[in-house]
Amino acid sequence: MRNTQRTQKIAFFFLFLATLLIVIPVGMIVVIIFQKGIPAINWQFLSDIPRQGMRAGGIYPAIIGTLYLVLGAIIFALPIGLLAAIYLSEYAKDNLLNRIIKLAIVNLSGVPSVVYGLFGLALFVVFLKFGASILSGSLTLGIMILPIIITTSREALESVPQSFREVSLSLGASKWQTIRHIVLPNAIPGVLTGTILGLGRAAGETAPILFTVAAFYLPQLPKSIFDQAMALPYHLYVISTQVPNVDEKVRYGTALVLLTLVLFMNLVAIIIRYNFRKKKKW
Predict the structure, then answer these.
(1) What is the pTM of this model?
(2) DSSP per residue, 91-104
(3) CATH no. for residue 165?
């Protein structure tokens, strides 16, 4: 009995240590970005265009461009990812081909973002002739986050108890009615979890938009989905590596805005997920 308790305490200690090793560096990064970036945050910085070779002015076009790209990626990826998850979870047979497809989808989540960028360049920019545009960038980001949404949505659908389906079918509902009215409402919190993960990755990636949409400098906002756009990740890369003599607070201020934007979008999605979770009966 004592050996068991001692082993349990040792295990808890190492788990706590592992948690600290994750939380402390992340907390330090957030604190450093906040301390060095907050002096740059003011209304002009958030609402003006870059000036003096990006050494002054604001980052308003980059903020709007990032929102356009993330919104476009989610509009494209969420319906397709959810439908694919429904097929794999509810309709696909458990055979070798479908198991290979599921494994391939999981593996696609680990593909480097620069590969998706090259894919988007070849398919959307060159082959389909969309050019470097918001449409090309959004579709590329959407394809990049598709594996995450499909995997998390499929797991959420499969977590709904089988008895729910059996009761619905026994009452005369069709398979699609059962999925639509019983399975999906109970799986929405898990689907939103995948959406949150996708939002974070889409908003923070630089390589895919570098090839498909990002502009070095634009004095005005894009007017259509076929225009180029500035984006916060690429803008941060540019002012940190390509533009000399940029004030440090401008770089950290841009990073702080990007971090805050991602956290805000995640917070909205988490609140929506929480409201759906309160309605669950199990």
Answers:
(1) 0.88
(2) IS-SSHHHHHHHHH
(3) 1.10.3720.10
